[in-house]
Amino acid sequence: MFKTVCKCGSGFTDEDLAKLPGVLDKYKADHKHARVDSKIEADVWFVPGLAIEVIGAEITLSPIHTCGMNAIRPGAGLAIRFPRFTGRYRTEKAPEDATTAVVIIEMYNNQLKKIESKPMEAV
Prior knowledge:
Number of strands: 8
Shape: globular
Structural class: alpha+beta
Radius of gyration: 16 Å
CATH architecture: Beta Barrel
Low-confidence stretches: none
Order of helices and strands: EHEEEEEEEH
Number of domains: 1
Strand content: 15-25%
């Protein structure tokens, strides 16, 4: 099952944006794919078929994204804050090889441990 973790609109060059319709056209679908778990209503749906690399500032709790839903807090999933495309299409990976919810949850928990271990600064 594919979960949502962000909507990414940053990091694309003008060249990327010009090529994107051609890259995505073969994956276009009339409806949400049965293996996609999403609370988001998209203008356009795609079948899972392409892996891209996305980075962000941190991982946050989200009421709309389904990655890690209910794992940290009831009714909350996890989302990438300030996601941006790195420019890398991961052609060596199948969509099933993308980072899993288990790994995203682990990243979130590790991020919290780093925050908790920092000493408080004097104000």
